[in-house]
Amino acid sequence: MWFLFRRWVAGPRREQAIRHARKMNAKGIGTVINFLGEHYTKQSDVEKTVTEYEELIREIRESKIRSDVSIKLTQFGLGFSKEICTRWADRIVSLAERAGVFVWIDMESSEHTDDTIEIYKNLLKKHRNIGVTLQARLRRSGKDAENLAGATVRVVKGAYKEHSSVAYTGKDEIRKSYTDIIDVLLSGRSRVAAATHDTKMIRYALSKKSIEVQMLMGVKNRLKIKLAKRGRRVKEYVPYGEKWIPYVMRRMMERKRNIVYVLRSLLE
Ligand SMILES: Cc1cc2nc3c(=O)[nH]c(=O)nc-3n(C[C@H](O)[C@H](O)[C@H](O)COP(=O)(O)OP(=O)(O)OC[C@H]3O[C@@H](n4cnc5c(N)ncnc54)[C@H](O)[C@@H]3O)c2cc1C
Predict the structure, then answer these.
(1) Which of 57, 72, 97, 136 is deepest in the core (most CB within 10 A)?
(2) Is the pTM of this model over 0.90?
(3) Is 50 within 8 Å of 15 (Cβ atoms)?
(4) Which residue ranges form the domains of the chain, and what is each CATH number?
(5) In angstroms, what is the span from residue 256 Cα to ligand 1's centroid?
(6) What pLDDT digit, counting tens, does each position of 246-261 carry?
């Protein structure tokens, strides 16, 4: 079934992600590889994830591709133990540090925001090769940006449906929050990556020299190449693995036209 979604997912296997990353690198685009999976409740699933990331980091180093990795903390057991999650994440970040690989922490639904930032800050005491994500949709993110002065932060709009008590719901409010967060982070001397496909937000990011632009695999491919040719730092987020359903569902919900695209591919 994943074949229908190959535009957004490199494939079920690690070597497919590595192969895709090599192709993107040849076009001047860096990658951020993510092994799909989230909300694990069993230690055995967490251990499989850790082993997979260890192999992934080794292969990034050996194949000499230009790639970061991205992890979700609920893949590392955040849902059942903050301590276990921190220990596994620390192990992955340490290994990545030795391999010269940067690790991004994805931000999940708002129930995990406090723990994610706390774990990130603890890891940052020992490692420099780590960044965290803030969601412009969340009302709290402006304050979080102030508290992350000096850190490395990826700014996204936020892919999770949240209650209006914690989240902005209007398009313009979310855009304003997005650019405000960037401003706060830059004034706190944080390193910023703008992860978005919104033309207005990309233009805002491009007006700031130091900002890296990140986009998802399968979205705005021509723009990525164009920006890379202009000398901007551009990265593509490349997910792989068998647990692609929640990821692909989020992409469908973001753009209803994607549903039509998949239905049409089914008929071909
Ligand atoms: C590198 C990267 C990392 C991310 N990490 C996280 C994370 O850790 N946590 C999190 O909550 N979210 C994450 N996201 C997802 C993000 O929060 C948004 O859900 C997603 O990027 C869509 O928002 P947008 O900024 O592109 O703006 P939108 O307003 O949703 O989209 C703007 C335009 O971009 C195009 N577009 C957007 N999405 C798609 C799509 N799926 N398919 C085709 N065209 C599309 C359309 O032309 C659309 O009109 C990440 C996104 C990127 C690019």
Answers:
(1) 136
(2) yes
(3) no
(4) 2-267 (3.20.20.220)
(5) 13
(6) 998 888 888 888 887 7
